[in-house]
UniProtKB/TrEMBL annotation:
<keyword id="KW-0812">Transmembrane</keyword>
<feature type="transmembrane region" description="Helical">
    <location>
        <begin position="184"/>
        <end position="200"/>
    </location>
</feature>
<feature type="signal peptide">
    <location>
        <begin position="1"/>
        <end position="23"/>
    </location>
</feature>
<keyword id="KW-0732">Signal</keyword>
<protein>
    <submittedName>
        <fullName>Uncharacterized protein DUF998</fullName>
    </submittedName>
</protein>
<feature type="transmembrane region" description="Helical">
    <location>
        <begin position="113"/>
        <end position="134"/>
    </location>
</feature>
<keyword id="KW-1133">Transmembrane helix</keyword>
<feature type="transmembrane region" description="Helical">
    <location>
        <begin position="57"/>
        <end position="77"/>
    </location>
</feature>
<keyword id="KW-0472">Membrane</keyword>
<feature type="transmembrane region" description="Helical">
    <location>
        <begin position="146"/>
        <end position="164"/>
    </location>
</feature>
<dbReference type="InterPro" id="IPR009339">
    <property type="entry name" value="DUF998"/>
</dbReference>
<dbReference type="Pfam" id="PF06197">
    <property type="entry name" value="DUF998"/>
</dbReference>
<feature type="transmembrane region" description="Helical">
    <location>
        <begin position="84"/>
        <end position="101"/>
    </location>
</feature>
Length: 205
């Protein structure tokens, strides 16, 4: 009987390229959205609020690109694949359902509620998976393990800071730098995705 090797449906090199390109696209889209909406305050307002501006499509593009980057890393991963896949799905839902305009914390729309729940689910799962995947690479050679650990730790720290700022904006002093906290979290997450894609590809060789 001839043994047939099963090839993955998508080559690992293509998945690595997809993850890196989508992470870079998401970063660029979010940065351009900040520049294209000078009337908004990026320190105070989350990225998703910008979807209501004149160039709101940049936000949708960025979130969709983030979802694709996570999905590509999930396809490369062994351990951590399931939470990454669910994180990608959550980000996709967040891209479909837009957030409300700034200043509507007291009475969010159904779309905003779905967006918030999906985005938070995606971010929590992604941050948790970052630690699982990074730990699974600790015995691999030729991977930037120190950088992966730093980005995973920064992601978790950013998530906690984002949660504290959100609680303040919703119920306490209403002055916490929510937008800045989210942007730091997104930067750490996107950096981890780009590094993880390369590391997982290298470890599979």
């Amino acid at each position: 009987m001839t043994h047939m090797m099963t090839r993955p449906p998508v080559p690992a090199g293509a998945l690595r390229t997809t993850a890196g390109a989508c992470a870079a696209t998401a970063f660029a889209a979010f940065a351009l959205s900040d520049l294209a909406h000078p009337g908004y305050d990026p320190v105070a307002e989350p990225v998703s609020r910008y979807v209501n501006g004149a160039h709101g499509w940049l936000v949708t593009l960025g979130i969709a690109a983030l979802s694709l980057a996570v999905a590509a890393v999930a396809a490369l991963a062994g351990r951590g694949r399931v939470p990454l896949a669910w994180a990608a799905a959550g980000a996709a839902v967040a891209a479909v359902f837009p957030a409300d305009p700034p200043g509507r914390w007291e009475a969010p729309s159904p779309s905003d509620s779905v967006h918030g729940a999906a985005a938070w689910t995606a971010l929590i799962l992604l941050c948790a998976a970052a630690h699982v995947v990074t730990r699974s690479l600790r015995r691999s050679t030729g991977v930037p393990l120190r950088a992966l650990r730093a980005c995973a730790a920064a992601s978790t720290t950013g998530l906690v800071l984002f949660a504290v700022c959100l609680a303040d904006r919703m119920a306490l002093t209403h002055s916490a730098p929510l937008g800045l906290a989210e942007r730091l979290l997104l930067a750490a997450v996107l950096a981890w995705l780009a590094l993880a894609a390369g590391a997982l590809r290298e470890a599979a060789r």
